[in-house]
C-alpha cells in the first residue's frame, strides 16, 4: 500500500471517531447550549444587568378550566396566544358596554407570546390560586371595592397606582399588567438597583449585610444577598396601603408583608423572577409566583404619570358635585 493510501486510511479513522452533531442543530449551537454560563461582574457574581421585559399572557391565577393542570400542552399554549391576540382586536372594535372610551390596542402592551407553559404565574399553592383571605384581609378587600364604587371621599380612596405613587405593575412584587412592563437592573459595589419603567421607581438594595431600617415605605425596605448564582432580595417594613399591583386583590397587603424575590439568569436571553408573598394578616398562608423575563434591546423612557396631577382632580371634583346634588335632593 502506498504512503498516500495509508495517510487516507488514518484520516478516515480519525473522522469516524468525531462526535456526530444532533440532527437539525449545528455543532456550535449544541456546544453553546451545553456550556453556556452567565457572564460575571468584577466581584465574581452573575451579571444580571440590563433591561428585562416581564410581559406575560399567562394569568396570575390558574383558570378553572385547567383544573389541576400545571403545565399547558402545545395546543393550550397556542389557544392562550390566540386569545391574547383576539383581546387586542376586540379593543379596536369600539368601546365595550358601559365603557366611556378607555385605551384601544395602541396603548396596551401585554404581549401575545407564551414564554413558559405554566398554567398560571402562581406555582404555589399547587392549585395555582391565591390562598384564602384572612377575616382581616376580607374586610380590607371589601372596603377597597366599596371605595371604588362610590364617589371618592378623598385621594386615599383611590389606588396608589392611580395616584401615581407607585406603578401599578412595579410592585414590589412585579406583576405583569397593561404596559411599561420593563425593569432595569444595575449592579455596583455594595448594592443593586431595580429601576421600574412604570413611574420610574428605583429601589436601591444594599448588599452589605446591614439590618433593615425602621422607617416604613411604599416599596418597603429591601436588603439583598447572593445564594449561589441567585440574587435574593428580601423586603419588609411596608406601609399598610397595599402594593402597587394592578390586581385589586393584591392591593390589600398589610404592613406585615414579608416579600422575598429571587433573580436567576438561566440563559443569555432569560431572567427567571420568582417571588414569595408572606402576609399573615391578609392571606392564610404564603404564596409564590414565577415569571420568565426576556432580555430587551429597547430603551426605557421616563414615564410621566399624569393621573395624580390631573385625573385625580377631576375625580374628586366630580365626587363633590355628586355630593352637592345628593344634598339638594335630601333638603
Query: Total helix count?
Result: 5
Element pattern in H and E = HHEHEHEEEEEEEEH
Measured by DSSP, the beta-strand proportion falls in: 15-25%
Task: Say how many strands there are.
Answer: 10
Low-confidence spans: 1-32
Task: State Rg.
Answer: 25 Å
Task: Characterize the structure shown.
The chain has 331 residues and is α+β, with helices and mostly antiparallel strands. It has a domain at 50-72 and 121-311. The protein contains 5 helices and 10 strands; from the N terminus they run H-H-E-H-E-H-E-E-E-E-E-E-E-E-H. The chain has helices spanning 3-17, 27-35, 74-91, 135-149, 307-330, and strands at 50-53, 122-124, 182-188, 191-196, 202-206, 221-227, 230-236, 258-267, 270-278, 287-296. Strands 1, 2, 3, 4, 5, 6, 7, 8, 9 and 10 form a 10-stranded antiparallel beta sheet that branches. The radius of gyration is 25 Å and the shape is globular. 26% of the residues are buried.
Amino acid at each position: 500500500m502506498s504512503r498516500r493510501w495509508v495517510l487516507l486510511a488514518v484520516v478516515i479513522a480519525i473522522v469516524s471517531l468525531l462526535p456526530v452533531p444532533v440532527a437539525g442543530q449545528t455543532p456550535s449551537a449544541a456546544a453553546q447550549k451545553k456550556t453556556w454560563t452567565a457572564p460575571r461582574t468584577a466581584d465574581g457574581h452573575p451579571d444580571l444587568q440590563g433591561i428585562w421585559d416581564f410581559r406575560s399572557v399567562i394569568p396570575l391565577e390558574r383558570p378553572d378550566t385547567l383544573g389541576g393542570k400545571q403545565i399547558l400542552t402545545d395546543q393550550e399554549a397556542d389557544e392562550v396566544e390566540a386569545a391574547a391576540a383576539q383581546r387586542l382586536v376586540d379593543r379596536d372594535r369600539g368601546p365595550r358596554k358601559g365603557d366611556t372610551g378607555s385605551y384601544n390596542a395602541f396603548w396596551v402592551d401585554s404581549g401575545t407570546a407564551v414564554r413558559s407553559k405554566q398554567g398560571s404565574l402562581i406555582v404555589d399553592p399547587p392549585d395555582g390560586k391565591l390562598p384564602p383571605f384572612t377575616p382581616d384581609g376580607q374586610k380590607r378587600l371589601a372596603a377597597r371595592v366599596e371605595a371604588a364604587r362610590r364617589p371618592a371621599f378623598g385621594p386615599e380612596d383611590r389606588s396608589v397606582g392611580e395616584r401615581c405613587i407607585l406603578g401599578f405593575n412595579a410592585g414590589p412584587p412585579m406583576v405583569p399588567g397593561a404596559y411599561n412592563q420593563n425593569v432595569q437592573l444595575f449592579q455596583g459595589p455594595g448594592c443593586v438597583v431595580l429601576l421600574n419603567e412604570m413611574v420610574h421607581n428605583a429601589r436601591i438594595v444594599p448588599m452589605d449585610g446591614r439590618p433593615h431600617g425602621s422607617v416604613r415605605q411604599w416599596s418597603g425596605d429591601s436588603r439583598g444577598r447572593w445564594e449561589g448564582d441567585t440574587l435574593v432580595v428580601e423586603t419588609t417594613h411596608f406601609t399598610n396601603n397595599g402594593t402597587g399591583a394592578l390586581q385589586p386583590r393584591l392591593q390589600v397587603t398589610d404592613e406585615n408583608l414579608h416579600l422575598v424575590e429571587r433573580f436567576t439568569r438561566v440563559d443569555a436571553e432569560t431572567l427567571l423572577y420568582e417571588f414569595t408573598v408572606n402576609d399573615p394578616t391578609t392571606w392564610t398562608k404564603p404564596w409564590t409566583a414565577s415569571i420568565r423575563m426576556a432580555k430587551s434591546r429597547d430603551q426605557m423612557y421616563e414615564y410621566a404619570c399624569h393621573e395624580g396631577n390631573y385625573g385625580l382632580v377631576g375625580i374628586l371634583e366630580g365626587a363633590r358635585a355628586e355630593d352637592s346634588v345628593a344634598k339638594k335632593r335630601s333638603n
